[in-house]
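Study this protein:
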Amino acid sequence: MWSRRTLHECASELESVSKQFRNAYMNSHKIDSNRRDEMMREYSNRGVELLRILALAIRSEQDAGRLMKLPARVGSFKDNVAHDEIALFPQYYRPPYKKVRSSKSLKLRDGLNKIAHADPGRSSFYADDTTHDLILCGKNQGKYWIAILSILDLCLVIKCMPDCEINKSDG
């Protein structure tokens, strides 16, 4: 299903999916829990697909020199974290991501790399009416890391970039 033709269209669709996911998560429409869970899974799967398309397409365009590497912040990053912190972090995380202790700024390119290299079994999220942050976890050279990636900030940054078509081979 190729409905997304440009980076901006893909980012707009991701914003829409994020809003739908957050509405389902917050149960804004007061639906039964089975239907709510089904909707969250559907929106989550669509969101992951969009994130992967964007990560691959933007990184590919940047690597080819057709799109500049922006220094825009899309989240926060903690490296060399203890294994226990990976399990506990999602329970205690509260936005804004900029205030996470001992974290560094997560720029667009690094955020896209974290999407590509995250361990889906260890990742989580924080969502409310105005926030949708992914909590991505992974391992690099034997050391664990945690990245907090704002879906909303990511979409905003992508929409500030020059728009370009997404090649089918990128997605």
